Amino acid sequence: MRVKQRIGGEKLARLGVELREQESLAELTSLGIGGWTDRLILREGEKLPELMALLQEEGIAHRFLGGGTNLLVEDGELDFVVLQLRPSRPGVSLEGGELWVDAAADLGGAVTWCARHGLGGMEGLIGVPGSVGGALRMNAGAYGTEIGAYVREVRVYRQASGQIHSLRGEEIRFDYRHTSFAPGDVMLRARLELPRKPYEEIIAGIRVCNEKRRASQPLGEKSAGCIFRNPPGGSAGRMIDELKLKNFAVGDAAVSGRHANFFVNRGRATCAEMMALVGEVRERVFRAFGSELENEVIFWRN
Ligand code: EPU
Known about the structure:
Elements: H1 9-14, E1 17-24, E2 36-42, H2 48-57, E3 62-64, E4 71-73, E5 81-85, E6 92-95, E7 98-102, H3 107-116, H4 132-138, E8 141-142, E9 145-146, E10 151-158, E11 163-168, E12 174-175, E13 178-179, E14 185-192, H5 199-216, E15 222-226, H6 236-242, E16 249-250, E17 253-255, E18 262-265, H7 271-289, E19 298-300
Bound molecules: uridine-diphosphate-2(N-acetylglucosaminyl) butyric acid.
């Protein structure tokens, strides 16, 4: 979709929006799959209500992009534009003793910043790729840690009201890879409360998690992390592995040879190939184990 046919460049500039025309989502996602559209990068999250009102007025469909690390995007020309907050580095600050993290900050960078300031607890999240906003939305977790456990407040734009709200931690439900945020909510900032720990202890914890991750996950390959959620009490990866589906492929979309719940793009995989692979594996797991796997990866289609 082309924004300029409907909204003048000056209007966007006034809102502090940088327009990147006809970008490939394959370049903006860790899976390296997806068609093309315009991307609007917003400098200040607080301007989101105005930008959203403008898009609505002009009937321009949109999706909100975080780090693009848990996302499978349709091939070809996309009929929505992509909005993104400008990445902030480090995007973490201590304000009067309160720890605030920007949604656009890199999650790993935020964990490292906290470690340097003697704030621990999030060691398990160190290798989880993506933005803080994406992690909040899906309650990212690894090695016994989930980000939701540390959230005390979230500044969020709500499409339902067209306004920015502050939600207290207790008002948000954080479940396994799922939260009570509405689909139209956009995370802007979060206040976290982390336990104080000596730097060396935090770094030792980070090292252990990094080693475990390196030993079991295909970190050098293009993936969206685990493709399916684990069923209660089970492991999607183990089931797929037991069916001898490691390296099973549809075109360039393949089940990783290292971890069977990671599906990888081995070259020029298309969304259609990845979808076919996901469907085939889900079907085989259901036939063999009677377990209906749910996608963890988010699918953007026109
Ligand atoms: N297993 C196999 N074969 C495989 C993969 C796993 O037999 O190909 C077995 C392992 O040997 C182990 C069990 O399955 O006994 C669980 O495997 P693992 O420890 O790798 O954990 P997982 O349940 O597959 C989950 C999260 C990961 C997270 C790790 C570490 C989900 C869907 N996955 O993986 O999160 O990093 O635990 O905490 O919850 C993600 O969500 O994208 C993700 C990568």
